[in-house]
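Kindly inspect the following:
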Amino acid sequence: MHEELTELTTVREHFSSPLLQLAEQDGGKTFTLVECPSGTGQIISRITNNEIDIAIALTDGLISGIAKGSQAYKLVGSYVATPLNWAVITGKESAFNSIADLKGTTMGISRYGSGSQLMAYVMALQQGWPTDELKFQVNNDIHGLIDSVNDGSTSAFMWEWFTTKPWVDTGKARFIGSVPTPWPSWLIAAHPERAPAEAVTDILQRLTTFIREFDSEEKRKQDDVDFIKDKFGYPEEDIRAWLKTVKYPQNCLEIPKEVVLNTLSMLEKAGALTAPQGGFDVNQFIGKDVVKLT
C-alpha cells in the first residue's frame, strides 16, 4: 500500500450503499470518500484535475471520456451489473406530457459529458430525432435542474428514477417517461499515476466482499432496506422496488469486454462520439495491471 490515503469518489445515493458500508468499516485508514453531488460530469472533472484517485461513476460517462482522448483515468472495475433507469422529468405545470413532446426543445443537463447529456442522445436515437440538433443548458445539479424545468428555461431533464421520485411525490416535478441504459450502469476508474495498482486492487477486493453481502438474498430481505432508509430516508416501498431492479457484479476486478464494446457502439450510433479510423482498441480503456477483461 502507498503511504498517502487514496481519495475515492462517487455520488452519495442508494447505489453507493456497499461502498458506504466499506467506508464505515475502513474508518479512513486506507481511503477517504470525496463527495460529488453533481454526478459523473463532476467526478470526471475532478479526476482530470488530479483531485481524486479512484472514481465510481456512470459507465457511459467514463467510457465516453476515454473515447474522446482523456488520459486522466483507466477503467479498473465493475460496480453495478444492471441498467440504470433514467427518468425523464419536466416541470409541474409545463406543457410537456410525453417524451415525443420534447423534440426540438432545450434539455437540462448537469454538465457536458454527464450521464444526463449522454442519455439524452440515446433517447433521441430511440425517438428517431436528429442527434446533432439536440440543445442543452447546464444546470449543475438536481436542484438547478428542477428549477430549470419549472421556470421554463428547459423542457425536461434526465436523472435516475428513484433519486428524483421524492420531487415528484411532493409535486415539484412530473415524470413523463423513462429510458433504461442499454449497458450495465456503473464502472470504476482510477488515475494511472495517482492510484497505485496495489492500492486500487486492495480496495476493490474489499469492496467485492461488501457487494456480495449487500447483494445476497438474506441481506435484501431487510438489512439493505434498513440501511438505505437510514442513510437516504426513502420510503420502504421505493427501496424494495429499486432492489428488484438492481444486481451487483460478483467480482469488482472484472469487466466484460462486451460492456465496453457495446457502450462505445451505442454512443457512436447516438452521435455522442466518433470512432477513430480503424475503430476503438478496448485495451486503451482499461488499467491492465488491475482489472481483468472477461
In short: Residues 197-214 form the longest helix (18 residues).
